[in-house]
């Protein structure tokens, strides 16, 4: 701002536009006005004095507060200089408005004062430790906690105050902290106070080494000494309680023994008196002796019952799926003498299976049935009825009611509750033996299983209810949450044990990334291409579809987002994020890590909750009843005209059952029996009936297989799900692939290209410092507006595509996609049903009116990380339990893969000898492909025995996985021999149960792998086949430990992948201790060729 003043009158001769704006008057109005007329009265005199001083001295500088007459707060710096103009001498004045600067300074001072007050009164201690490890700052609260004045600590090395044990531990983590800017470490440690005592602090340390104001490590510490002491007391109390419980248990057994010993002697001497002195005792003496023996017997029984009662719920055995009729059969055998003596008869219905502790369930039945036999009418033989009934609760859940009815003496109904209390007897000991504790044991058993027990006399009927399925879904939810916690802990531990640099080197993380390009994607997602600014992607190992967390500063913090890996190229990676890309990712320097698959768990929980809350009129209630009971079979077969003329009778029967079942049908498909072909026919038939179909599977590979076959059959199919997880062959029928052919997508792509061009221009200007943060945000909002328009256009396009589809395909978990909205389907197909955990199986079922499940319970089970959840049943599937309950299942038996010799062992051992080799494969061999015959390895089945070679298995240090270098060398030699005979590497698969062995073989067979040879663990070959398969069993040790090989379902997968030639390499001495492998070796001797590694 500038003014020209008459030095004599202080009137304004001229003014520029900024001055006019400051005073709020036009320039024309200002001319001729005295400057003092524009100012408040209290500064007018001072202005005149300052201007007079400037006239005399030639120049002057002064600052004026509250200058403006309008009363607006102001702070102005005035500089006046005398100068000659055409109109004579004038004062040239420049004015600098310091108002905002002054206000900012005041606010900063106020903020500093507030910060100082917060620091001084904070319960926490704040330290800054410089890069040399010395205290550079300590908050005043350090004096209250540790006794030091904060200035005493400045320049002191922090590690000199730490407890020696904690100092050693911290030094191990300090190195990793030094190497990672913004890394945060949380730990508990002891620190020495001024008086020499130690206190416990919980500290959060963040690396701010690159911050210009800090240049060190900021430590926020809280005194938790009292909490630690309390925790230590609680631990001590818990240990003491546990010790007391052990002592009590030991005392119970000792007391039992000590109490029983004199009772045994009383009975023994009583028996001796009866035998040797009966005549001398006389009738009265014998009566007394009999009473004494009876009392001793009752006392002994009472002691045993009391011990049983106290032991019941402390044994902690996991529940198992139990066939009630098998348990009952054992109980009746135990009670055989009582049953014969009382001439008891039984009426036993079709009993349901239960989830229960086997010992407790046996005890429950024994107590109830022995009571029914014991409390009988003198003139009438006992008749006992044992029945179960499936009942539906008001909320739609299912419970199993177990009812035991007898024709006994009965009781007054007013005592119905009392009889389940310890020592409650309704009849005298002289008439009916017992201690009065049997029904109390029953109540305790039933309550331990989450049920309730009641007794009714009508006359003489026990009515017992135990809950099975009413709480099964809630129990499933808890197991699922256990599994989620186990997976999260696994990821968290792996992350905590390694620094970011370590994780980058391991290929599971990337650092210092920047955004290169942004694209809208189906389902309200955004795709972004990211590139490291320094590193390359040479060692990056994560695959498309991996869950990710993208973060700056700290994982899970304010600047952290969940994403999915889309693609990996030579110098960049593509990711998916839900919604818009976060603003903070527009600034380079963020990182990327592998993350636990939380979305999958959330979908499982949501599906469980939906079935828990299902009302009876909804589809979920009908399906739930089928899942927890026995599904109704088809009433009348409808007429079926096959669309696939090559289906065999078993496949046609499976199709018929699937189409006609009212709610749920099961198809059992052993290896090579055409399970997928059967499902394709089911789907095509449903489409012909104008039914809407959702086809799902546990794995992406199986879904893509369905897509390819449906497309080949001419069905209008759409594959939804992350494009990252879709195979190249199925991509053309994926929602992404179809979108690119849609006319609406063209306009959306144009808008995306414009948005990316604008974003690049903004980034260039920002890098050059030409844009403020606010300006950059404003310009980026236009980019996001374009992206939003593009996304809306894509949504319209995808709804058009989905509305035209006959069949939607997705993984079981992916069927929860918001793209489908609340759409329900007439038919839902779940392939690989025996590989899907129940929560994931429920996800597609929430959209179903009818369901077809297909799978093979004799192959790979679901993957469960939590051992606790697996023990309690999460590893068992709906398919398996339905079959166990007697649900109708159609088994496919004609296989089109394996030579009959290869097929024989899995058929006999696993499938009850029911598999049949089709004529087209029964005798096919490698020689039919032009492969040179081998005079030693004759036939389709060969076992090479490494027993006695000394090739012991060993643990890989880094991973604890098992490997066998000696056996690996033999495997490599055999594979090279196959290739030399003329087998194409693309026709050979190598299967081994351990990843460490996979790595050994991959290193040794690099050229062969480049030519198409596949080496994988058993999981990697599920659903696959090769002309020749080599199985390396790895295990060889003196202890005959076989590890993973104990899971014979996995080995069934390995032994059923080969079409023409199966070679198994293993140590017979190690594996033969297991019955499955002993049978396999017998089968090789009978049908195949057994060779020794010593002689080949």
From TrEMBL:
Keywords: ATP-binding, Chromophore, Coiled coil, Helicase, Hydrolase, Nucleotide-binding, Phosphoprotein, Photoreceptor protein, Receptor, Sensory transduction. Pfam families: AAA_11, AAA_12, HATPase_c, HisKA, PAS_3, PAS_9. Residues 254-473 form the Histidine kinase domain. The keyword Hydrolase applies. GO terms for molecular function: 5'-3' DNA helicase activity; ATP binding; hydrolase activity; phosphorelay sensor kinase activity; photoreceptor activity. Belongs to the DNA2/NAM7 helicase family. This is Histidine kinase.
